[in-house]
Amino acid sequence: MAAIEFIEERCKGCGLCVIACPKELLKVSSHLNRAGYPVSTIEDMDACTGCALCAEMCPDVVITVFK
Length: 67
Ligand code: SF4
Ligand code: SF4
Description:
The protein contains two helices and four strands, in the order βαββαβ. The chain is of the alpha+beta class.
């Protein structure tokens, strides 16, 4: 099973990772980081394939995928 780590403080809530996920597992949550941006989260970790498209898409290197 894959695991995903978010470095929340880097996230700007742009939503590019949400668009990138072929399984539509990511969303920009209502939780704000210290800079005041809403941060991305994964909704169903068990469904993640570990494809890492979300991590490749993120311009701020927020996401690391472990397989
Ligand atoms: S690793 Fe792939 S399946 Fe998992 S959240 Fe990222 S884009 Fe979606
Ligand atoms: S994790 Fe990256 S791509 Fe996703 S919302 Fe945050 S900054 Fe944007």
